[in-house]
Specification:
By secondary structure, the chain is an all-alpha fold. The chain is built from 6 helices and no strands.
């Protein structure tokens, strides 16, 4: 829910570059050199969100629908 509530602060891969790839709907994962940063909620939230199916990512703008779809998953 952290990523969905703060989605305006995260870039998608489509916004970070103009190449249409299979991961265009995934959130752009910032480069992390420190292990402590890789364990932070922001970094792990992006990784977990990116592993969700596309149908759930598309409804992430609507929190109620996102929660419902996530529970079904």
């Amino acid at each position: 829910m952290f990523v969905v509530q703060n989605k305006k602060y995260f870039l998608t891969n489509n916004e970070s570059h103009n190449i249409d790839t299979r991961q265009r709907y995934d959130l752009h994962l910032p480069q992390a050199n420190l292990t402590i940063y890789q364990r932070a909620a922001q970094y792990l939230g992006i990784k977990i969100f990116d592993n969700l199916p596309l149908e759930i990512k598309i409804v992430a703008d609507n929190q109620k629908k996102f929660k419902c779809e996530l529970k079904k998953f």
